[in-house]
Amino acid sequence: MARRRPRKSAAPVQDNECIEFSSEPSLHVSERGIGATFVNRQRRELRKINYDGCYCRVAREGRADFIIGFDRLIDVILELKGSDLKHALAQVTDTLGRWREDAIRYPQVVCLIVFGHTFPRMSSKLGVLEREFLDRHETLLWIRKSATGKFNFRRLAGRS
């Protein structure tokens, strides 16, 4: 019987207390009543990094809440927000700049802001903000409501 070789990790994982791995069919993350669920029907490896205040302890810059990795291919920088779109954009942008330099990041990075309690009134302009973010940072940004369904990694990566 042939043995399968263990998969190599992208880089050494530091701060293990901030990183969890799972191959469950879905992964739910939440903070202060706002949540996001990621589907993983094929039970591939998911990596959840508790970024704000655990993995990243930079004091003066913005930090997104989590980074969710999919099968060593895609990282989703995730900010869960009650309101204040401007602050959420700053947190995601700061995290993106640092994460691009991190040794454990996966090849593709996308950003996701999930709103819970107060969805921005300017919802008609959210598409414009997403396109401007793509033009400025060469990275996809999605802005969605907390209870609008589950997130699919292929769709988030722009591969519908």
Which regions have little confidence, pLDDT < 50, spanning 5+ residues? 1-12
Distance between the termini: 38 Å
Hey, roughly how much beta strand do the residues contain? 25-35%
Bulk shape: globular
Helix/strand order: EEEEEEHEHEEH
| Adjacency order of strands in the biggest sheet | 1-4-5-6-7-8
**Number of domain modules:** 1
Q: Return the average pLDDT rounded to an integer.
A: 85
Rg, nearest Å = 16 Å
* Tally of helical segments: 3
Report on the biggest sheet.
Answer: 6 strands, mixed
Q: Tell me the number of strands.
A: 9
Structural class based on helices, strands and sheet pairing? alpha/beta
Helix content: 10-25%
